Amino acid sequence: MIGAMDSDVFAVIGDPSRRRILDELREGDCSVGQLVEALSMSQPAVSKHLRVLREAGLAVATPVAQQRIYHLTGEPLRSADAWLAPYRAMWSGHLDALGRHLDSWGGS
Description:
The protein is α+β, with helices and mostly antiparallel strands. It has helices at residues 4-13, 16-27, 32-39, 43-55, 75-106, and strands at residues 30-31, 59-64, 67-72. Strands 1-3-2 form a three-stranded antiparallel beta sheet. The chain starts with a helix and ends with a helix.
């Protein structure tokens, strides 16, 4: 059964702006200013999404001088990935069967 943390993670990553932020953080640690520039979003919007990502445990802020540098944390995504694993296996099996069926039509 899906746990509360997993459902929170799915709700958080369901937002396209937060997925874009996660994609940027996957490439490396960033300040809010770097994210604003890279994503062409307003500073208040980026800060709002970063707060949601922090609360879900997907990002952590480290103070460096006058800035906060954000980086990804993996555990919530690992939990979501573990929940998705049986579905991936199911779809993989279906796609393999489709491939075999299509190959049989090819008559090679």
